[in-house]
Amino acid sequence: MDTRDEKLLILRGEILGNVNAQSSSEEAFQNKTIRPILKLQNDLFVQVFINYAVKQKNVFFKLAPEKKLAYIENVIQKDIKFRNSLKGMIIALFTIDEYTEYIKNSSNLNKRMMNLLIERLKSNVQILEEIN
């Protein structure tokens, strides 16, 4: 029988980005773990963000495109409850070994996670506009 960790790795698919001998441990973790999880969870992150924007009185949907990009970044950086919720959605898909690695340097890895997620949501801004 497959373990949870084996199933997670199969579900996430292959490494995204380059990992080689020159890669820092953070860069390797980002490409082996964070990027595949963000890709897998992309549609969920889009829906979660839309729900957040709706609960914030739809302000996001009335903004000009460049202001929407700033809004996405600002919300994820400043709204700690929302950011922690997003972080939990990523961490929940870590294997035990990945979690052990993550807790050694969680502060820097959290920054990487949120920066990658911000860029992913920004790249989905047209989808975010069309849905509402």
Report on this structure:
This is Glyoxalase. This protein has 132 residues and is mostly helical. It has one domain. It contains 9 helices and no strands. Helix 2 packs across helix 8 and helix 5 runs antiparallel to helix 8. The longest helix is centred in the last third of the chain and has 18 residues, at 106-123. The radius of gyration is 16 Å and the shape is elongated. The N and C termini lie far apart (43 Å).
Feature tags:
132 residues, mainly alpha, 78% helix, 0% strand, elongated
Write the layout of secondary structure elements.
Blueprint: H1 4-12, H2 25-40, H3 42-55, H4 59-62, H5 65-78, H6 80-91, H7 96-104, H8 106-123, H9 125-131
Helix pairs in contact: 2-8, 5-8
Q: What's the overall geometry?
A: elongated
Number of domains: 1
Oligomeric description of these chains: single chain
From the N-terminal CA to the C-terminal CA, the straight-line distance is 43 Å
| Mean of all residue-level pLDDT scores | 91
Order of SSEs, N→C? Answer: HHHHHHHHH
Name the helicity range. Answer: over 70%
Estimated structural class = mainly alpha
Rg over CA atoms, rounded to whole Å, is 16 Å
| Beta-strand content estimate | under 5%
Largest sheet: none
Low-confidence stretches: none
Count helical runs: 9
Number of strands: 0
Summary, kept brief:
78% of the residues lie in helices and 0% in strands. It has 132 residues and is an all-alpha fold. It has one domain.
